[in-house]
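call fold(seq) -> tokens
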Amino acid sequence: MDATPEAILDFAAKVAQTAWDDQKLYNLADLAPDLKDAGIDYKSVLRGQRLRAFLEGEPNKIKVIFHPTQKANIRLIPPDKDYTWPAEPVAASPTTSSSAGTSAKIVGSKRQYIVSSFLKLVSELSEDEAQQVQIPLHILTKLMRDR
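ret:
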């Protein structure tokens, strides 16, 4: 294979089309090693220009797409195709999933027992350690309330 910018572009377009035909997306990170395996030293051919920048400059021959949240996830697809990334599930925050649910299940005297036991443990700390514990009173009273 010739070591020319056109050869690099043709190679990239070919592997992107093959991946697309297999219902996959070609990863830009795989292009450099694949070019090396094909006997093309892209760095000398492109004279220091990065592959991504080179390919982005040829929108009629190949399309470079970027994942909306994963910065390093860059793929190549045929120029006449469009791709929409699947929606990612929203991760639940710790307060909405585990601690809030557990807190709501503990009621009445059990809540008061837990808070009282905690305060008893705090009272066993040294004077210096106990001064570092800072829990607003409104939080303690909220924890003591029966739900």
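The beta strands are 26-27, 63-66, 74-77.
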